[in-house]
Write a structure and sequence with these properties.
The structure is a single chain. This protein is an alpha+beta fold. The chain folds into two domains: 278 residues, Zn peptidases (Aminopeptidase, 3-Layer(aba) Sandwich), CATH 3.40.630; 120 residues, Alpha-Beta Plaits (2-Layer Sandwich). Helix content is 33%, strand content 21%. It has 14 helices and 19 strands. Strands 1-2-6-3-7-18 form a six-stranded mixed β-sheet, covered by helices on one side. A four-stranded antiparallel β-sheet has the order 12-14-10-15. A three-stranded antiparallel β-sheet has the order 4-5-19. Strand 4 and strand 5 form a beta hairpin. The protein starts with a helix and ends with a helix. 44% of the residues are buried. InterPro entries: Cyt/Met_Dipeptidase (IPR051458), Peptidase_M20 (IPR002933), Peptidase_M20_dimer (IPR011650). Keywords: Hydrolase, Metal-binding, Plasmid, Protease.
C-alpha cells in the first residue's frame, strides 16, 4: 500500500482542485437543474478510468453505471453514491455562494461537497490511484450513481430489481453521511427504515364561534390530539398494537459494538440545548437510535395561528407523522397497524399513507467486515468504530433485500458537514483520507 499512498499524498492539491471543479456544477434533483450535465461528467470520468459505462434512463432522473471487471474469481464490489444535491436555499445564509467552491478554515465549502459528490469523487480518485500505480484493480468494481437520492430514491427499488444481473456483486459500499462526532472513522452495518403518514380530521363544514358553538361542535384539533395521545404514552412507549411484533432483537455482537462506542450524553444535550433526553428515561442512548422504532409528530396544524386571538372552533386539522423502522419491520406492516389503531380510536379520522423505506441490516460478522476494517486501519492509522445501525434512512435495503448481499456505509465527511443546510462543507484532510481509504478497502477486499 505504501506506493499507492505515496501516489495519493503527492497529488493532494490536484485532487482538491478537481473536486472543486466537479461540485461547482449544480445537480438539483428537486428542480431538475443540471442533472443530465453532471451525469454526463460522471460518464466521462468513468470512461476515462477504463470502466464500461452506461447512462441508464428511468421514469425520473438517470442512473450512471460503470464496471471494471478484472477476474471472475475475485470479489466484486459495488460502490453506490448519488450525484444529485439538495437545493441551496436559503441563499442568504451562505457565507460564500453554494456553487462557487471556496476553501476556508481547512474546509471546502460548497453544496454537494459532503453529500455526496465529494465522497464518491474520493472513491473515484482512489480507483484512479490504484490504476496508475498497479495498472489494474485488486478486485472487480461496479459503480452505481443515482440522480434522485435527495428526493427519496423513487426509482431505485424497481431499478435494482430489473437489473439484478448487471448489479450482481459480493458486497456494497456506500460512502455517504458524516463521521461520528469524535472524528473517528467508522463502518455502519445498517439503517433504520421509515414510514410517513398523515391524519386528517374534519368535524364540521366550517369553523365556528367558540362561545355560540362551544360544547356542541366537536373540535378537529382536539380530535387529533386525543388520537395521537392513544398512540404513545407520556412515558414514551408506543402503544400501537402489533407494531413491535416483527422486530429482531439486537445480537450479542451488536451489543458489544455499541458498548465500545464513545458516548458524551452531556455534550450531545448541550449542543442541542436539551434539558433531558426524550422518554423513556431508562433506555440506553444508542438503543434509541439503532434498535427501537420511533413515532414522531412532524407537524400538527389546524385552527387559528395568526397574531392575537381568534375565538374559533377548528373544523379541520391534520397531523403529519413518521415512524422509524428497525429490522424486520416494513412500511406496509406499519401502515396496517396504524390504520387499524385509527379505526378503533377515531374512526372518523382519515388515515393517509405516504412514502416508506425498508430498514436494512448487515451482520457485523460478515467476512467482508474484516477486509473493510483492515483497509480503514491502513489508510487512517486508527481502528474504526463499528456501528450496527444509523438512526436515519438510506436505500440500503435494495442491496441487502433485493440483491441479497451485505451492505456497508463508510462515510468520509466530518460530523458537522452541514449537509442539507447552508454552508455545507468537507474538511480537506478527511477528503484526502477518503481517497486513501477507498483505495485501501478495495486492496484488502481483493486480497481476502
Amino acid at each position: 500500500m505504501d506506493k499507492i499512498f505515496d501516489y495519493i499524498d503527492a497529488r493532494e492539491a490536484e485532487y482538491v482542485t478537481r473536486v472543486m471543479d466537479y461540485v461547482r456544477h449544480p445537480s438539483i434533483s428537486a428542480h431538475n437543474i443540471g442533472i443530465r450535465h453532471v451525469a454526463g461528467l460522471l460518464v466521462d470520468m468513468l470512461d476515462g478510468l477504463g470502466f464500461q459505462t452506461q447512462l441508464i434512463e428511468t421514469a425520473g432522473h438517470p442512473f450512471v453505471f460503470g464496471e471494471y471487471l478484472v477476474d471472475p474469481s475475485l470479489p466484486t464490489v459495488l460502490l453506490y453514491g448519488h450525484y444529485d444535491v439538495q437545493p441551496p436555499d436559503p441563499l442568504e445564509k451562505w457565507i460564500s455562494p453554494p456553487f462557487e467552491p471556496t476553501i476556508r478554515d481547512g474546509r471546502i465549502w460548497a453544496r454537494g461537497i459532503g453529500d455526496n459528490k465529494g465522497q464518491h469523487f474520493a472513491q473515484l480518485m482512489g480507483i484512479e490511484a490504484l490504476l496508475a500505480v498497479t495498472g489494474t484493480l485488486p478486485c472487480n468494481v461496479k459503480f452505481l450513481l443515482e440522480g434522485e437520492e435527495e428526493i427519496g430514491s423513487p426509482q431505485i427499488a424497481d431499478f435494482v430489481a430489473a437489473h439484478r444481473e448487471m448489479l450482481a456483486c459480493d458486497l456494497v459500499i456506500t460512502s455517504d453521511g458524516p463521521l461520528h462526532d469524535t472524528g473517528l472513522p467508522q463502518v455502519t452495518y445498517g439503517v433504520r427504515g421509515m414510514a410517513s403518514f398523515e391524519l386528517r380530521a374534519k368535524t364540521a363544514d366550517r369553523d365556528s364561534h367558540s362561545g355560540n358553538y362551544g360544547g356542541t361542535m366537536p373540535n378537529a384539533v382536539w380530535t387529533l390530539v386525543n388520537l395521537l395521545a392513544t398512540m404513545k404514552t407520556p412515558d414514551g412507549e408506543i402503544t400501537i398494537a402489533g407494531l413491535h411484533d416483527p422486530i429482531i432483537p439486537a445480537t450479542n455482537a451488536e451489543r458489544a459494538a455499541v458498548g465500545a462506542l464513545p458516548l458524551d450524553v452531556d455534550g450531545f444535550m448541550a449542543e442541542l440545548g436539551l434539558k433531558h433526553l426524550d422518554a423513556p428515561a431508562n433506555v440506553p442512548f444508542y438503543d434509541r437510535l439503532m434498535f427501537r422504532p420511533t413515532l414522531t409528530i412532524n407537524g400538527l396544524h389546524g385552527g387559528y395561528g395568526g397574531e392575537g386571538t381568534k375565538s374559533v372552533i377548528p373544523s379541520e386539522a391534520f397531523a403529519k407523522c413518521d415512524i422509524r423502522l428497525v429490522e424486520a419491520m416494513t412500511p406496509d406492516q406499519v401502515f396496517d397497524c396504524v390504520r387499524a389503531h385509527v379505526a378503533i380510536h377515531a374512526p372518523d379520522v382519515e388515515f393517509i399513507a405516504h412514502g416508506g423505506m425498508l430498514p436494512s441490516k448487515t451482520s457485523l460478522e460478515s467476512p467482508y467486515a474484516r477486509a473493510i476494517t483492515d483497509g480503514i486501519r491502513a489508510a487512517r492509522g486508527v481502528e474504526p468504530l463499528h456501528i450496527p445501525s444509523a438512526g436515519g434512512s438510506l436505500p440500503d435495503y435494495v442491496f441487502t433485500k433485493i440483491l441479497g448481499v451485505p451492505a456497508f456505509v463508510v462515510p468520509y465527511a466530518n460530523h458537522d458537514e452541514a449537509n442539507h443546510a447552508p454552508n455545507e462543507n468537507l474538511k480537506l484532510d478527511l477528503f484526502h483520507a477518503g481517497i486513501r481509504t477507498g483505495a485501501a478497502m478495495l486492496t484488502k477486499i481483493g486480497g481476502q
